[in-house]
Amino acid sequence: xASSQRDAYTYESQNDQRLDELHSKIRTLRGVTTDIHDDVExxxxxxxxxxxxxxxxxSSLSQSTRNFTRAFGGTKTWRIMLYVCGVLNGIRLQLACYxxxxxxxxxxxxxxxxxxxxxxxxxxxSSVLRIxxxxxxxxxVNIIHIYWRKLSY
Length: 153
Prior knowledge:
Distance between the termini: 93 Å
Oligomer: single chain
Helix content: over 70%
């Protein structure tokens, strides 16, 4: 009888030990599941923010397109091309006047005056065309600033 009680006690202690191990694994799995859920929630918020940003950009772009169409609705294509070529030549002349200009590879080594004139040209272009360039204007100006900083080193 004592032997069967000892065996029952041994089996019961083994069951308790395995049950504790199972509880530990379940807690670990629950922690991993909670971490995955939190990560998915963060990614959903980030996707919503990105979607909102793209929606705002799309509406801004469509408004700019409508303004462009209104400004040049009756204008022929060649006239628009002349405007664009004139602006690009104006920028080229400004760089040639206020900075050293290499015509082979278009590498201007400019001063701040040339950068300021390019910025004024872009502002003038956006006001003449009655297009709200907004973020695109700032992006172009920032690219020009970075380009000039790299050339000055």
